[in-house]
Amino acid sequence: MIPETVRFSPRGIPDVTLEGRLLDGGGAPCVISHPHPLASGDMDHGVVVALWRGAAARGYRALRYNFRGVGESTGTLTAKSPLATADLGGAVDFLGGGPMIAVGYSYGARTTLHAIHAGEAITRAALVGLPTRLPANRAAMASLLMGRNIKTEQFIEIPDLDLIADAPRPVRVFAGEHDPLVEPDELRARDVEPDMLPGVNHFFSRHLGNQPPVADDLDQLVERVFTFLES
């Protein structure tokens, strides 16, 4: 399979162009959304690429793409912008409008969850690193990047977390055991049992800082994600 560079617009925003990479395994579509654009998230993140290649290897027509203002995607997203569901909607339209499966990572997981509630043609979704809370001060951000607890860290709960409790399509949350943004008990309180990967953090790395994950951990994540999506 040879990756193809593609371009399309967010739904309802024709003057913006998003870039994507398509890897066509010949089968049903799968759309993959990346972490937060304002925190260096893009479609070339190692976790996103591993999930994209894993989807294509399993026969899916797999698309990863950059949200507005990332890479060669035009337009902008700011800290006050709504979640980029229009960007995801454009990716769904590009893939034929559904039905399809979806994978979102961190910010991309929140965007995917909102899109499902909005009626997007997604039949099942893997929410990878879906945050239950966000850093509220520098200590919390340092804790996220360094992979250890800092006594002065402060977090704020995600205001839309209750959406996970009554998702209209089958979803599953996948997270690292040492991810400070994911509180398993907050998910369990909403009758959602997360699939926790041992030994890794929000970046699915075992190292301090945002270091690349090892191949075995990525393989385990991909295997768990697609076991659920294909169940």
What does this structure look like?
This protein is an alpha/beta fold and 231 residues long. The chain has one domain (4-229): Rossmann fold (3-Layer(aba) Sandwich), CATH 3.40.50. It has helices spanning 46-57, 85-94, 107-117, 138-146, 184-188, 215-229, and strands at residues 4-8, 18-24, 29-33, 61-65, 100-105, 122-128, 133-135, 155-157, 171-176, 195-197.
- The coarse overall form would be globular
Helix percentage range: 25-40%
Oligomer designation: single chain
CATH H level, superfamily name: Alpha/Beta hydrolase fold, catalytic domain
Cα gyration radius (Å): 16 Å
CATH domain fold name: Rossmann fold
Structural class: alpha/beta
What is the CATH C-level name?
Answer: Alpha Beta
Helix/strand order, N-terminal first: EEEHEHEHEEHEEHEH
Low-confidence stretches: none
In what order do the strands lie side by side in the largest sheet? 1-2-4-3-5-6-9-10
Number of strands: 10
End-to-end distance, in Å? 25 Å
Number of helices: 6
Structural topology:
Layout: E1 4-8, E2 18-24, E3 29-33, H1 46-57, E4 61-65, H2 85-94, E5 100-105, H3 107-117, E6 122-128, E7 133-135, H4 138-146, E8 155-157, E9 171-176, H5 184-188, E10 195-197, H6 215-229
Parallel strand pairs: 3-4, 3-5, 5-6, 6-9, 9-10
Antiparallel strand pairs: 1-2, 2-4, 7-8
What are its keywords?
6 helices; 8-stranded mixed β-sheet; two-stranded antiparallel ribbon; single chain; Rossmann fold; 231 residues; alpha/beta
